[in-house]
């Protein structure tokens, strides 16, 4: 495979594709955990909702804490023959795979089961952070041209959304339909219908198979990244950052909130027990196909306008799905439309972050090597917020009377799920858009920064050439 090009040359299709494939493991495992971990802990591991909420909250909070820590360590790492970011990625991948596999294993004991999931969930999040923070920061080391970085980011987001499709498809299609609950539970006694022991064993086995497939893909993607991407050396590396983080984190947070509760919503509120995995898959496929559309839109109209349009697009569909009577065809149509906003939520934050890093470099030319810190703190806020949201949402299900292992849930659980996937995300969208209205980096400022950075780079190159000539 070709390596990334040297300074001044354009990145080829294969350069960008190999770089993008490296982002797939994070999204494959993330979508599987996001959509299925909550329902796995409640209905397969059969934990009390209170303990499940503790695991989800502590795991994500711990994950958030490790981001700035790893970012700091990466920024202080010495460059090696294969770069400064790549050793972190290669060393963390095998441990991430091992701990991920153990998250989905149901231990043959009851006492200590909560500790089991808490420990391995936290360990996996730590290893995943050691992989993803350096990988995210690698964006700043593939080219000095913002247009090339934007293009590579679009490739990356397309592959990452495809990764969520794979994670959702692999996990959903293998584990979907393994329980023996009747399809129509309307008007039936909740206590008479629970998942049988045989069905539970089948579900455990299905989760092991899907996890094994995902682990193999994780390692293959890491290998492609290593073989196809050569990290560039010697690249030099505030109010816009804060506003971007707060505004876009609220947008990403609503995605986390939907992801964590949507499978339960489809199963227990809309009654699509046998089809929920297919509906989730349609959302991810729709998102994958519309990534190029958003890349064109932000290039044509600017990134701020793309954010406004992308986020508000989701609002009517969030309201529609909880307002109308449950019909499978409507759920599929809404899922297609929702995927369009999913694509925007994936692409736009990561496309805008390099602009903030460039803005910082222009205003602080003497400060170098801080790319990993920008990316790690960016990830920190979303993970901490998502941990809080998942913990609170799972705990709210307990207060609503969620019954572990039951095929039908009380009406209060249905109402709670409607609130979590509609009302709360809509509020977060409008708050985030109000904050982003004050985001100062428009297209003119972004282009001016690019000219200044190119002048600084040319000046450094001339200085190095002069120094080399003097030595000779």
Automatic annotation (TrEMBL):
Gene3D superfamilies, A to Z: MFS general substrate transporter like domains
Main location: membrane
Keywords: Cell membrane, Disulfide bond, Endoplasmic reticulum, Glycoprotein, Lipid transport, Membrane, Symport, Transmembrane, Transmembrane helix, Transport
GO annotation, cellular component aspect: endoplasmic reticulum membrane; plasma membrane
Residues spanning the membrane: 17-42, 86-106, 118-142, 206-229, 250-270, 276-294, 306-324, 330-351, 372-395, 415-436
Topology relative to the membrane: Multi-pass membrane protein
Coiled-coil features, chain-numbered ranges: none
Family listed: Belongs to the major facilitator superfamily.
Protein name as it appears in the record: MFSD2 lysolipid transporter A, lysophospholipid a
């Amino acid at each position: 495979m070709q390596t990334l090009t040297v300074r001044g040359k354009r990145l080829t299709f294969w350069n960008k594709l190999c770089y993008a494939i490296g982002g797939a493991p994070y999204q494959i495992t993330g979508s599987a955990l996001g959509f299925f971990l909550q329902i796995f802990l409640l209905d397969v591991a059969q934990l009390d909702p209170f303990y499940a909420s503790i695991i989800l909250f502590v795991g994500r909070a711990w994950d958030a804490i490790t981001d700035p820590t790893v970012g700091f360590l990466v920024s202080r790492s010495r460059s090696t023959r294969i770069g400064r970011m790549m050793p972190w990625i290669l060393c963390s991948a095998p441990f991430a795979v091992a701990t991920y596999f153990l998250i989905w294993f149901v231990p043959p004991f009851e006492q200590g089961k909560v500790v089991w999931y808490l420990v391995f969930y936290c360990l996996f999040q730590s290893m995943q952070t050691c992989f993803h923070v350096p990988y995210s920061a690698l964006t700043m080391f593939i080219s000095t041209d913002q247009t090339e970085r934007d293009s590579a980011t679009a490739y990356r987001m397309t592959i990452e959304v495809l990764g969520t499709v794979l994670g959702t498809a692999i996990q959903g299609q293998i584990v979907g339909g393994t329980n023996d609950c009747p399809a129509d539970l309307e008007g039936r006694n909740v206590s008479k219908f629970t998942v049988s022991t045989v069905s539970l064993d089948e579900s455990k086995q299905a989760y092991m198979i899907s996890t094994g497939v995902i682990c193999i893909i994780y390692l293959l993607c890491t290998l492609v990244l290593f073989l196809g991407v050569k990290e560039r050396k010697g690249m030099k590396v505030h109010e816009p950052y804060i506003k971007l983080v707060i505004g876009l984190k609220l947008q990403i947070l609503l995605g986390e909130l939907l992801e964590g509760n949507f499978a339960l919503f489809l199963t227990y509120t809309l009654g699509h027990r046998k089809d929920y995995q297919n509906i989730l898959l349609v959302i991810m496929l729709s998102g994958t196909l519309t990534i190029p559309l958003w890349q064109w839109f932000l290039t044509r109209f600017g990134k701020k306008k793309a954010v406004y349009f992308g986020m508000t697009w989701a609002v009517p569909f969030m309201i529609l799905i909880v307002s109308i009577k449950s019909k499978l065809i409507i759920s599929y149509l809404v899922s297609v439309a929702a995927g369009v906003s999913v694509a925007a939520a994936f692409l736009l934050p990561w496309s805008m972050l390099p602009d903030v890093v460039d803005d910082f470099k222009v205003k602080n030319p003497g400060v170098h090597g801080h790319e990993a810190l920008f990316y790690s703190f960016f990830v920190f806020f979303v993970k901490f917020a998502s941990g809080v949201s998942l913990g609170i949402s799972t705990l709210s299900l307990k207060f609503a009377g969620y019954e572990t292992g039951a095929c039908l849930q009380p009406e209060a659980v249905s109402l709670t799920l409607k609130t979590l996937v509609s009302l709360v995300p809509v509020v977060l969208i409008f708050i985030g858009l109000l904050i982003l209205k004050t985001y100062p980096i428009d297209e003119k400022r972004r282009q001016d920064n690019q000219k200044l950075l190119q002048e600084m780079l040319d000046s450094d190159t001339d200085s190095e050439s002069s120094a080399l000539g003097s030595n000779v």
